[in-house]
Amino acid sequence: MGESRTASASLGLLVGRLEHRMSRRVEAALGGPTLEQWRVLDLLSDGEGHPMTEIATHAMVPPPTLTKIVDRLIESTLVYRRPDEADRRRILVFLSERGQEEHAALAPRVALAEQDVVADLDQADLARLTDLLERLSR
Question: With CB atoms 3.0 to 4.6 Å apart as the test, which of 65, 71, 106, 117 could cross-link to 61 if both were Cys?
Answer without folding.
Answer: 65
